[in-house]
Specification:
Layout lengths: L1 E3 L8 H7 L9 H18 L6 E4 L2 H10 L7 E6 L2 H12 L3 E6 L8 H10 L3 E7 L1 E2 L4 E2 L2 H10 L3 E5 L18 E5 L10 E6 L1 H9 L9 H9 L9 H17 L1 H21 L3 E2 L11 E5 L6 H12 L1 E3 L10 E5 L6 H21 L1
Parallel strand pairs: 1-13, 3-4, 3-5, 5-8, 8-9
Antiparallel strand pairs: 2-10, 6-7, 9-10, 11-12, 12-14
Bound molecules: pyridoxal-5'-phosphate.
């Protein structure tokens, strides 16, 4: 199987085998060592000296952690959404009673940092900005560093969904001065689903002390206090920690720069190849095309769903589909985590062949 969806992503055999290890006491000294090493690894990738917290949940749970631990019902927040994951982040805030102001763009576009600044100037009551770093549904990466600068300049909080970017695309949280940053294990981390990672800045902890949204399982302060004892408040997905511990050995051997460069090169290869097939990218401005997932329009009149089905059944190539209003109209190629150019090359060979056959059949 060539699994080319943008998460869950394939894992190295040794990482899967590490996850098969026997259970141990999750409050004992052996697991404490693993939790320390894994947290050090997270801090390294996040570029932060404050311990990154980990939660047993998927990326969406991590987004909920960000919202309920920094805000109170009635708080005004600016949702910057460029696709379906931006919309999801916004829905979480609404569900918990935030007063959401919306900056929504056409799918395929990236947010304009200057517009974020204008919206914040227009409404001093806005307390926090919620933004997706890499919008997986449209294969578009927001100019996060510039957006963060606008938010910082006006002294609001910035909550970031970096689920499909952190560990694959640079997102240094201290250097960019980001307040809460969320990622998820099944995207660029080369491990199975089950853990979400969330960093908190000093400002975010100050907001946490006043935040009134209800929370129990996802209480970040409880999680931080347990981490001091090298424990989780609840029983964690231990097997995923075993795997991640091994994955960090591989990541450290490659180095962060090496990992970023590999993603950049494979993404460029993917875009060039797709364009050489005469296909159009979903991101309107290629400068914002993602280095972890490439979203592509099926040509007019082509049965994209049929091609995806044949790719899977006849060639073992699993492509990502379109979400929401893009369903049936686009396909997505995930190229994040444990991926080489050859993986993408063989997937696109199949797309090329099936497109040719669809054309000659007409
Ligand atoms: C995958 C993803 C999520 C979270 O999805 P889960 O299925 O809950 O892990 C959130 N945001 C983005 C940008 C994602 O790619």
């Amino acid at each position: 199987m060539n699994l080319r969806i943008p998460g869950p992503t394939p894992c190295p055999d040794e990482v899967l085998q590490a996850g098969a290890a026997q259970m141990m006491n999750h409050r004992g000294p052996e697991f404490a060592q693993i939790l320390r090493r894994v947290t050090d690894g997270l801090n390294w990738v996040y570029g932060t000296s404050a311990d990154v917290l980990s939660f047993t949940t998927s990326g969406t749970g991590g987004l909920e952690v960000a919202v309920v631990n920094t805000l109170s019902p009635g708080d005004k927040v600016l949702s910057v959404s460029i696709g379906s994951f931006g919309d999801r982040f916004k829905s979480i805030a609404k569900t918990y009673g935030a007063d959401v102001v919306s900056y929504a763009l056409e799918w395929g576009e990236a947010a304009d940092p200057a517009e974020v600044g204008r919206l914040l100037d227009a409404d001093p009551a806005i307390k926090a900005v919620m933004v997706t770093h890499n919008e997986t549904s449209t294969g578009t990466t927001n100019p996060l560093e510039a957006i963060a600068r606008e938010v910082r300049r006006r002294d609001r909080l910035i909550l970031v969904d970096a689920v499909s970017s952190m560990s694959s695309i640079p997102c240094p949280v201290e250097r960019w001065d980001l307040d809460v940053v969320v990622s998820g294990s099944q995207k660029g981390w080369m491990v199975p689903p089950g853990l979400a990672f969330v960093s908190f800045s000093e400002r975010a902890w100050a907001a946490n002390a006043a935040a009134k949204m209800p929370r129990f399982y996802f209480d970040a302060a409880k999680t931080r206090d347990s981490l001091v004892k090298l424990q989780n408040p609840w029983t964690p997905a231990m097997s995923i920690y075993y795997s991640l511990d091994r994955a960090f050995e591989l990541m450290r051997a490659e180095g962060l720069e090496g990992i970023f460069t590999r993603h950049e090169a494979i993404a460029k290869y993917t875009r060039d190849r797709v364009k050489s097939l005469g296909l159009r990218l979903v991101p309107v401005d290629e400068r914002f095309a993602s280095n972890t997932v490439t979203a592509v329009w099926w040509p007019e009149g082509v049965d994209g769903k049929g091609i995806s089905k044949r790719a899977r059944e006849e060639y073992g190539v699993v492509l990502g589909g379109g979400q929401g209003k893009l369903e049936g109209k686009i396909f997505r190629v995930g190229h994040l985590g444990f991926v080489s150019q050859a993986d993408v090359e063989s997937a696109l060979d199949v797309v090329e062949r099936l497109l040719e056959e669809a054309k000659t059949a007409v």
